[in-house]
Amino acid sequence: MPERDTSRALVHALGARGLTADPADVRWVDTERGLWRALFGEPRAVLRARRPGEPADIFLVRARLSPEGHLLGVSALYNLSDTSAVDERGLVHDGARVSWLIASDNSVSSVHYLDLRGELPGKAAPLSGLPRLQNAITNRQQTGQAAGVGRRSWKIEPAASHVALGFQRGALLITLDGGALRVDTDSRPVRIAHESLREQEHIKARPGNLVTWAVDRVRALPWFGSDRMQAVKAIAFAGLDWLERTQGAVTGDDGAERIAEEMSGIVHAPPTTYTDPETGWPPAPLVPVLSPAIEGEGKWVLLDRDPFIRNNPGAPAAFAFSFIRTDRQRRYTQTYITLWDPRQVSLHAMSGTVEPKSATGETGPGIVPRTPEVLGRLVAGFNGGFQATHGEFGMMAENVVYLPPKPYGATVAELNDGSTGFGTWPNDDRVPEGIVSFRQNMTPLVADGVNNPYKREWWGGVPPGWTDESRTVRSGLCLTKEGFVAYFYGSSVDANRLALAMQRARCVYGIHLDMNPGHTGLEFYRADKAGALPDIGHPINPNWEAKNGIPGMPGWEFQGRRMIRYMGLMNFPRYINRESRDFFYLTLRDVLPGVALTPLVTPAEPGEGAWQVRGLPQHGWPYAVTTSFIRPDSARPRLRVNLVKLDGSVLRASARRSGESVVSFRKRAVRATGAQSIWFAEGRFVSSKEPPPVAELIASGYAAHDPRASKAIAALGVSRANTHLVYAELASDAAAAMDGPLLDRLLTQLGCDQRVLLDLPLGVALGGERDLSGQALPAGALGLHLVRSQGPGGRRIFTDTPIVPVKEWYVLQAKRVRYMRKKAAPAASDGSGPPAPAPAAAPASSH
Length: 847
What we know:
The chain is mainly beta. An eight-stranded antiparallel sheet has the order 13-14-15-26-25-27-23-24, with helices on one face. The N and C termini lie far apart (74 Å).
């Protein structure tokens, strides 16, 4: 006898598809009945269901019903949450509005809201024409309706033990650990103001170009799948390779003409022929693989004259460029290399709005942070690793874990001191405290200079098990022997040739990133307030150059270019906009000496306003200290202020003077109650009334608004990034009750947003010996010493991870993220969670 209860009948029908559900967890969205609905409609239901051995997900079902309302069958099934490491529970609905909770064990971590009427306004990139059609087709494939679904979610920080959901007259009710919140879901955008809830962005990025988008759409078809798509691409790559080899054999093409065309208009200087002994930059040229070498092959071209790339004033170029050919049978192919100095350039990972597909429902913003501090130092962006479907390799960005780390995964990481770390993750899924972000992809392509130490046989582009590797566009990232970081872009290479290029660049650790045209590439950017960008000297070529306003940053604009002219990266300019796939972006670190000051008194004295670094106790590079002087008041030309600027990121505190002392300070009296103080703590300078943890006092004084500050004769200022300290001291012609405001304005002009005014000179001894007037300071008068430390740069991490056989690492990497074992989820929507595991030790590093 047929099941009369529609929800029970639906559960039975889904059981044939391998899903287990409870009829109590079925929520019918469309409840109309009748002949017309039976003939032409497909009523929708939302339910909580699970596959054997997996956590529950939220599914959307389109069903066929008889005029009487009996279930005839299931016509379509869509996974609306698809999280592999957490459990969905507490499902509630009100018509087309749906909400549920995300939980792990008995701890609830987020609230999700879905509007089945369609995408929420303002949550998709402005689209028209073909991109709009692409978005509609994607929506249809993923949700069964061209309008898609509107998504909102809020992360609970810290995770709560008691959360319940409900709807009342169109409003979503959230009961959170005893407190109740009401969210009007008809007001757009939906906002919740609560200290424990942080809204996650669900803003769509532009779809890819037609080819890459179509590949993803076909791959997602259940009857086609990823392996068939890999086979199709492998055959296509093999055919293209045969055609190129035939053409190369007939024409004798050695790639010189192609290289000249790609680099035309990009290279603004001849190749370098030297390495600066002070900075070690640029490194020695690469030794070519093929002979004879093409002109310029393997030699570094500095990019300090490029109008699309910001440089640090008074510092060497942060970027260099080269190319090399590594395939003797395909002499026309080449790999292009962009090299940067991580002592000047910081690397950051950013999750896309779609990829990597999160194991916990967490979504990434997919956009470079829209702040002047970030955009004002932005220099480049480039592709990340494989999609989650090709291995679920780990990723964390901005301290949010989207996919947990996989054992023996090749990893690039941003460390909390600003360094870029490279290493192989150990057999431990905990993330050490010292890591801010990381991205993994497969096993290392190169480690300790050895090609493929883990004996991997599959590097993408072909179905697993194929013996031949496809030759297509591939990209990679490496740490060199000299401590520099390089991005590799091979136009038609296999993994072995990419590894060979890394070896010739003296890479000690290399990672294979994403591959195939459209998905891979690097773009340079320079951003500033409108009207402040430099003239590039010629009209913008839209094929490989761009200039425009910055979405989400009113009053700002950027200019950018591709790494090479005809790089096939889709959606150019790509990474300055919102992006659906993960990527890396680079920012220029603020190093000394900095921008010179403009003299206000004419004629200027020799050296006035210029920052000096020579003859000072630097003990390495980047510079740790720089000095200057300025006459800041044109009405008082004899008034002179001496300046000292320190970079705390390359300093550490010491109780005694040593051979690497950069600066020492006179012993300070006990600070007065309520005084504003400047502290040095773990490479940063901090202005506060109370001491930060593990901090050393530099000086105490007055805030600018304090009446006593007007009589100041010295001042300290801290930059917005907290890494630079500026000390200003009146050297002559001081005026009582007048110079405090002048010193405060001067430090403001120097970019110091935290300032403390002093009524006595600080007693600064450069090298721990003489003060700014040249007078020797007795050793007994000195207290705090700042000595040279290594500072941020390129690092090896996880150096103790062993090289293990394929049978050991492959099993661990082949497991889905579901290997993170979780207890069965209870039916209720609340509970209490277990204590958090102890943090792992900081990653081992080698210098």
